[in-house]
Amino acid sequence: MTAMVKAEGVHKSFGGVQVLKGIDLEVKTGEVFCLIGPSGSGKSTFLRCINHLEKINAGRLYVDGELVGYRQKGDKLYELKDSEVAQQRRDIGMVFQRFNLFPHMTAVENVMEAPVQVKGLSRSAARQRALELLDRVGLGDKAGNYPSQLSGGQQQRVAIARALAMDPKLMLFDEPTSALDPELVGDVLDVMRDLAESGMTMIVVTHEMGFAREVGDSLVFMDGGVVVESGHPRDVLTDPQHERTKSFLSKVL
Amino acid sequence: MTDKLDKGTGGARPAAAVSKDDGPASVAPAVIKAIPVRHYGRYVSAVVVLALVGLLINAFATAEKIQWQAVGDYVFDSTVLAGAGRTLLISVLAMVMGVVLGVILAVMRLSKNPVTSWVAWVYIWFFRGTPVYVQLLLWFNLALIFPVLNLGPLYKDEMVDVMTPFMAALLGLGLNEAAYMAEICRAGLQSVDDGQTEAAHALGMSHGKTLRRIVIPQAMRVIVPPTGNEFLNMLKTSSLVYAVTYNELLRATSTIGSTSYAVMEMLFVACIWYLVITSVFSVGQYYLERRFARGSSRNLPPTPWQKIKVNMMAFSRERSSTV
Fold first, then answer.
1. Quick one: pLDDT band at residue B296, thresholds 50, 70, 90?
2. Is 0.90 topped by the overall pTM?
3. Is the minimum CB–CB distance between B299 and chain A shorter than 8 Å?
């Protein structure tokens, strides 16, 4: 299997605060890659670097063999133009903790928006595809509802459908269930499980250890801006090697 | 989402409690019949206010010096109508100018380019910081310092020919309005959650598309109400262009007033037309706000027309059932 995402010594700081202190990791095509760690460990920041919502300060980040946000010519790096960054992002779907659905559009319009505006798909074709995707996440009957008329779990599933509408090769999930009422978490995880089974490459920042153990192919524990421990989810979660991992897991499990 | 849940459980709980307490024989509870509290203060204040309003009306109705006849005669006078038309024209044009320039200034102020943002700041600082009356006079008297308008090979003319009363009024009102609209637009754009921009960018949308499709439609909800206010203000402020001899409503009525010895009566006529115009636009604003509220509230309030329709349907249904 080839690497879908490759990080080499990724550093990121906000102001003077170092948030990522050299992340090296590899996400293989088709795998479900889980990032866990305490808040402030930099896992969300790292996720946002992958689609260049945050600019990295040092190191290299590749998605599907392509450098993210820069072009290398000889030993010089050139920043990509906004339009080129947008081009790169088209293939990377992202799901946010707070859903970030467009509130002035109905569910189906949310899903149609990017295919029509970015890919230039006709409205009727985009609508048909959007309805299929809403069906797939179990919300075929909610197509005409505005986000404010949907529950959190439903909103998050619309957000997943919206990301899928661009036919991404990689999906990023930034704590997709953290803002949900406990009883709504299951529906969203079910959709993500289905997506994993369909072979989608997924990077999931999560506190759902059950999901990580069941669905994850790899798991990384981050703390203080570095990767502390990585391996197969079952191994790391049941038999952590580092003290820091042990103490974290003892609190969340 | 959470309040929806709360509503669900909140609705279920009392129902369950009722069935438990009442047991198998559920009897309707006795409705409380209590003597309501008497609010004597309300009766007193209502009487006092009504008395004062009555006195005021009486004063106007019995004033021998008011020639109500003149008010009626001149309301639809062609000069007055033309003046009202010009008031409307200059207000709309100045407002359009203000909105367009205001949006540009807002984007300039928010841009990362320090030069454009600084220029926008200075513009807003000057035009908000000086009275619009002074600005009108500045434009009107521009020929005193620049007798000739020379735009190089593009255009060249005598300033007095260019700076007509209409031009002075338009520039004075429009450029002033732009400064206020810039701040309103900026507040609107900044009110949209950053997550919206991020979500749009993550989908591969460009900056321009994100602004046009995602940010501005949501900013409009914040921008429209104060813009409506600005327009109503503009309709009234336009009376200041009297000073630059533009023949709008106030000038038209005053001219008649001073020649026909009906000064107050003509001011009443002006008031009537200002009220008519502002009332019509207030209704328009209501519908505009309703449109941009889509998605922000679960149920839009019915429009007055919808209310009438619903009432009429209920009425006809009642009638058909009784027949």
1. low
2. no
3. no
User: What are the pLDDT digits (tens) for B163-193?
Assistant: 999 999 999 999 999 999 999 999 999 999 9
pLDDT tens-digit map of A60-100: 999 999 999 999 998 899 999 999 999 999 999 999 999 99
Task: Provide the CB-side half-sphere exposure for B271 (13 A, CA).
Answer: 7
- How many residues are listed for chain B in this entry? 323
pLDDT, position A213: 93
Q: Measure CB to CB from residue B198 to each of A53, A146, A147 and give the nearest one.
A: A53
Which chain A positions have a beta carbon within 8 Å of B1's beta carbon?
150-155, 181, 184
Amino acid (1-letter code) at residue B83: G
**Structure confidence by residue, pLDDT tens digits, B85-107:** 999 999 999 999 999 999 999 99
| Model confidence pLDDT, tens digit, residues B5-40 | 444 444 444 444 444 444 555 678 888 888 888 889
Please tell me the distance from the alpha carbon of residue A40 to that of residue A19, in angstroms, as a whole number. 8
How close does chain B come to A239, measured CA to CA in Å?
36
Interface residues on A facing B, Cβ-Cβ cutoff 8 A: 51, 53, 82-83, 86-87, 89-90, 92-94, 96, 98, 100-106, 113-114, 117-118, 146-155, 159, 162-163, 166, 181, 184
* Structure-block tokens of residue A80: 């990509």
Task: State how far the Cα of B167 lies from the Cα of B161, in Å rounded to an integer.
Answer: 10
> What part of B 42-101 touches A (C-beta under 8 Å)?
none
Nearest C-alpha neighbor of B136 from the set B96, B174, B166, B169: B169
Nearest to A212 by CA among A80, A43, A59: A43
**Short-list B53, B57, B36, CA closest to B45:** B53
| Nearest residue of chain B to residue A112 (CA atoms) | B203
Q: Which long-range contacts (CB under 8 A, 24 or more apart) does B66-75 make?
A: B66/B264, B66/B265, B67/B262, B67/B265, B68/B265, B70/B260, B70/B262, B70/B265, B70/B266, B71/B265, B71/B268, B71/B269, B71/B272, B74/B253, B74/B256, B74/B262, B74/B265, B74/B266, B74/B269, B75/B269, B75/B272, B75/B273
Tell me the C-alpha distance between B93 and B207, whole Å: 30
Q: Which residue from A90, A101, A146 is facing B204, i.e. has the nearest CB? A: A90
Minimal-distance CA residue of chain A relative to B3 = A151
> Do B309 and B296 contact (CB within 8 A), yes or no?
no
